[in-house]
Design a protein that fits this description.
By secondary structure, this protein is an alpha+beta fold. The protein has 2 domains: 41 residues, Arc Repressor Mutant, subunit A (Orthogonal Bundle); 73 residues, 2-Layer Sandwich (Alpha-Beta Plaits), CATH 3.30.70. The chain contains 5 helices and 4 strands. A 4-stranded antiparallel β-sheet has the order 2-3-1-4. A hairpin with a 6-residue loop joins strand 2 and strand 3. Helix 2 crosses helix 3. The chain is elongated and about 55 Å long.
Length: 141
């Protein structure tokens, strides 16, 4: 079970994974060693799975980001998902129970690049029945 201190640690690290343990300790009113032990316990329990960075795709030349739903023949869903994992332009990949069987986050250079990705790469994977891109206009959170 997580207590309030664990929740504060998770919140602070979620906002900035590079937050110094000394800063977290000051906020919580405990020692840096205590914070270090709590973080280690959260990691060992699988609550904290990894530390990561948030990239601005446009700074790398990807001026278009799309959340793209992919529908497949039911028996092909796992094969399609495995194929999608191989593409560098697929930045995140999820199996879902919503409107689409698979959701991807795609980084493209521009509309022409996205069109090529959808038509000539994703759309040609055996078992894909529908590809539905939604271009992200602005990230709010």
């Amino acid at each position: 079970m997580l207590d309030e201190r664990d929740k504060v640690i998770i919140d602070m690290l979620t906002k900035d994974a590079r937050t110094p343990f000394t800063e977290i300790a000051k906020v919580l009113g405990i020692s840096e060693t205590a914070v270090r032990k709590r973080v280690k316990a959260l990691e060992e329990a699988g609550v904290i799975k990894q530390y990561t960075v948030v990239i601005d795709p446009s700074r790398l030349g990807y001026n278009l980001v799309s959340l793209t739903g992919v529908d497949t023949l039911p028996e092909k869903i796992f094969e399609v998902a495995e194929k999608l994992k191989e593409f560098e332009f697929v930045r995140n990949l999820y199996l879902t129970s919503g409107d689409h069987m698979i959701m991807t986050e795609i980084w493209a250079k521009n509309g022409e690049d996205l069109s090529d990705i959808i038509s000539n790469k994703i759309g040609k994977i055996p078992g894909v029945t529908k590809v539905c891109p939604a271009i992200i206009l602005e990230r709010l959170k």
